[in-house]
Amino acid sequence: MLYQIILKNFKSSWKNYFVYFTGNIIGVAEFFVFLGLYSVSKVIMKDASADFGTIQDIMLACILVCIFSVAIMTYSMQKFMRLRLREYQLFYVLGMKRRKMYGMILFEYFSGCLGTLFAGMFAGRLMLGGVLKAWHYFFPEYIRRVPITVSVYMDTCKLSVAVFLAVAFSLLVWADNHGLQDLMNDGKKKEKKPQSRKWLVFTVAGVLLIAAGYWIYARYSLNYGYLYSHLFLIFGTFFVVLFGGGILLEILHKRRKFYLKHLLGLNGLYSRYQSNMLFFLMIFTVQFAAVGYCGVQIAEILPISGQEKYFPYDAVWMGKDTGENQNFVNQCVKEYKGSVKKFPMIRVSGYSVELVGISEKTYEQLSGKQVHLKNKEIVYIQNEYKTYNGKKVTMGAMDYGRKGYTWLMPGSFDKEKDEYVSPESNHPIASKDWDHLYRMKRIEAGNWFGKYRIGVEAENVVVFSENYFNKWHEKLKKEKEEPDLLYLFSFPDRTEKQGTKELQKYVNKYGNQDYGLTDEVQKTLYVTATFVTELEKSLLFQLSNKAFFFLALLVSGNFALFVKTASELPDYRKRYEFLSCMGITKKMKKRTLAWEVKLLPEITTAAVLLLSAGYVEMEKIRESYLGVVHGKEVWIYWGCLSAGYILLTEVMLELLKKWVAKRVEEENRR
């Protein structure tokens, strides 16, 4: 008879449990998708230029989503367990032994967990397969099709089961150490909040953490400082809201007129302050990652079209200074009404990358500036098109293990150099290899020949002293496959296609060999129109994965908001009933419920937008240190993304508000 009562009780309350199990399914599915993306990220990339920033994005998104998934699963299953524990107290009073009660609860709990684990992995398998298939379909140049390995299933199971066990163990210990009355009153106790002005010191500490986060972010490249800066920003904001919010509520409490007028709407913050602040931290983290981190990167990529305006020449060829080549070049520019500039050059190799070496004299011709280099001193020029020539670079330079120095070897990156830099070789590491370390007298950004790279270092320009350059130029020009002259072609619009086509045909037949050993695909001939097509395809690929992470994080945050609102329906019903007994009008009751539903999410939205706005400005400063100059268009695109974020949030809140009002009214009529 007792088991029949338990079964009927479970069936009658299944709608309350459904939302918790759904939260669990979403958490498991996100585990599967992002652990799966991380596990296959290096395998699916066909080209090193394609994974520029992508693997970093996947790693960061994987960490954030896994933390969020743990939080939402813990929240959902904790709510379920607490609810069932309270319901089982009735059966405990009717004579059920405590051990049997816990056994039944654990049976229900792990049955639900097992079902949600399989459902979540099935949903995650469909989503991950869809994402990989779409990437391969639209970007076959970069993404190869790979099977989803067993390790993804195993990792998802391990992580999910760990969460299930941790929640069950902690709650059963808690229940065993509390009496019946404490269990019945759980959720009714008023949670404490900071009230005294002395807590302002933690608010100030939060402001200082935010300032430190901005400062570190603007001055550190991709290292631990970069990670710490984001943690400082998130927890600094949390401190400001947690302690500053508590003090603000206490100040409002003393303003009796305002307090009494808005008491019903503020009730959730006053009575469940700690729970709401922890939920604020969870939602704020994922939404800041979306609007701040992903949003600013999307804004920097846009617009994708129109990249050709950043390239000063229609074609750049690194060839030999021979009579045959000179005759062809002169004939080509004459036939197609073009022009050509010529500069002496050498190929320079870095770690799995090739650069362009020019002389001090050529640099002075291009820039009008003298540098007075000696011996192995160089000027390192980072090719950027969103900049101005000579822009000082103070961060992100190619220091290889020793500040102020970079590792270089004159000549193309051939098999011999590839073996030299291999970790399996017996050659010294870069920081100890003094024969190939060059002191960077100046590091700057420029766009002298065009940014023919998608990664970080390929085709950057190295300026050598005149004597040092001439020594290597004379030596390398004797090598058959080493280019020694830089040809810069310009054609009128009407003949550009024919002229570059003729040039490509000649280089394919008579040009220097492309060794193809660099991480990024590099060539001796770059035709701007062809490269821009590849560049726009690469930018579109980067945009697609950043947009996917942006939407995944936003949807995750909004779904967590739904789970929280659904779990608080019983509280909304009690307050609605209380307001009805007090004679409050229906319109006022709806307004009060709407305010309570929307208050915390709108505080979160405001915090996300304020912190992200500062993040955008710090990103512009950081990029400026790296040599990139962004205009106001970054703010415009980020503003559009933020408007979309606000719209999505407001639509979600309106739907939640109407859903809560409908459910509460239905219960009130019964």
TrEMBL record:
UniProt membrane topology term: Multi-pass membrane protein
In Swiss-Prot or TrEMBL terms, this protein is called ABC3 transporter permease C-terminal domain-containing protein
Q: Which organism is it from?
A: Dorea hominis
Give the ABC3 transporter permease C-terminal domain ranges: 61-139
In which compartments does the protein localize? Cell membrane
Give the top-rank taxon of the lineage listed in the UniProt record for this protein.
Answer: Bacteria
Per UniProt, which keywords does this protein have? Cell membrane, Membrane, Transmembrane, Transmembrane helix
Q: Transmembrane stretches, by residue range?
A: 17-38, 58-77, 106-128, 159-178, 199-218, 230-252, 273-293, 547-566, 597-615, 635-653
